[in-house]
């Protein structure tokens, strides 16, 4: 019997305990396991290689993303590190010029060390895509849609089809939306990954990541590198993330409803010069987002007229912080925080200006969020 995504995640691991029939799956903190005898191998022997609690989380995320298997990692950056270990020194990686700042810096640094070849391109422009694929033979194409922090929308199905024609692996960072709102593997991608720190866990109390693939051979390579490099997530973190995921649909639905109302308010405010939210009909990627997403998400950015610091200082409910995707509403200044590692030139090209602010909308009452933003805008210098 088929189940809705929400039912799948709420029921993940429920009543599977064979030892004591616990409804909620137990947490296995043991680093090692008793082996019955020499040569008598068991599924679980050493927790870096396999752990029951980590496997419960991997199975739950894998089912949501419609993959063949998943690897749970210690962070979102560990997930990306795991993925790029599929590349060889002569392989070309094509990546978006406006991706998350730390992803941009990691890819650049490893490319400079000769781990792989790298080219940043504008994935939102058809001519740029055509040129990139015609002039090169990439081994991997990395997509971040919506992009962080300006929420540009890449056509995942189109790019994945171009990549497939030349035998390249398509990788999608799905952190901003979660599997509830976008399933890249169903759009043709080969790998999808998350910082589970964000929407999947949803409570800002765990750092983690996950990689899911639709290809059995890729899964074998990912499992080898995850075990060999020790990029795996801890059992307690896995337990907490699965616990947080049980309310994923409820949280995302409420936060998205709030985000739409916040975006509309900011769109009409005289002290806001630009709002970046795919749910607005004048957003350049609105139609593509509507076709490949099940909603427009709870993330948005905007350009404030005047002093960004003055605006932030007048906020009460929104907290200035690095992360996103929790139940609480957060504000981020990408130029000085999440994207500072890109360097000034790359930030300017990506549209990460000093006046740009990114909002992660939480599940608070919408009236309080609107009033907090309005008050800060009205009182900003």
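Sequence proposed for the structure above (381 residues):
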């Amino acid at each position: 019997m088929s189940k809705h995504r929400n039912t799948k995640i709420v029921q993940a691991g429920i009543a599977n305990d064979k030892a004591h029939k616990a409804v909620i799956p137990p947490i296995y903190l043991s680093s090692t396991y008793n082996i019955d005898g020499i040569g008598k191998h068991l599924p679980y022997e050493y927790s870096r290689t396999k752990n029951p609690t980590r496997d419960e989380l991997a199975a739950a995320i894998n089912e949501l993303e419609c993959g063949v298997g998943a690897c749970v990692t210690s962070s979102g950056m560990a997930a990306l590190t795991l993925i790029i270990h599929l590349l060889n020194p002569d392989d070309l990686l094509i990546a978006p010029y406006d991706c998350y700042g730390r992803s941009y810096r990691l890819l650049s640094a490893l490319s400079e060390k000769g781990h792989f070849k790298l080219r940043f391109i504008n994935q939102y422009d058809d001519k740029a895509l055509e040129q990139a694929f015609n002039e090169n033979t990439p081994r991997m194409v990395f997509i971040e849609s919506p992009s962080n922090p300006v929420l540009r929308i890449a056509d995942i199905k189109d790019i994945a089809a171009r990549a497939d024609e030349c035998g390249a692996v398509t990788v999608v960072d799905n952190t901003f939306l979660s599997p509830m709102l976008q399933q890249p593997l169903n759009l043709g991608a080969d790998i999808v990954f998350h910082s589970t720190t964000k929407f999947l866990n949803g409570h800002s109390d765990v750092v983690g990541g996950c990689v899911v693939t639709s290809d059995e051979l890729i899964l074998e390579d990912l499992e080898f590198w995850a075990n060999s490099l020790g990029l795996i997530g801890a059992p307690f973190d896995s337990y907490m993330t699965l616990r947080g995921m049980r309310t994923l649909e409820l949280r995302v639905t409420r936060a998205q409803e709030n985000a739409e109302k916040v975006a509309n308010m900011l769109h009409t405010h005289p002290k806001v010069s630009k709002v970046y939210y795919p749910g607005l009909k004048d957003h350049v990627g609105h139609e593509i987002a509507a076709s490949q997403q099940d909603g427009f998400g709870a993330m948005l950015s905007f350009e404030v007229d005047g002093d960004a610091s003055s605006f932030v200082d007048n906020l009460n409910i929104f907290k200035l912080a690095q992360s996103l995707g929790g139940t609480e509403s957060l504000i981020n200044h990408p130029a000085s925080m999440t994207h500072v590692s890109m360097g000034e030139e790359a930030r300017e090209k990506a549209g990460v200006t000093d006046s740009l602010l990114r909002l992660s909308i939480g599940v608070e009452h919408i009236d309080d969020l609107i009033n907090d933003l309005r008050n800060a805008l009205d009182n900003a210098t």
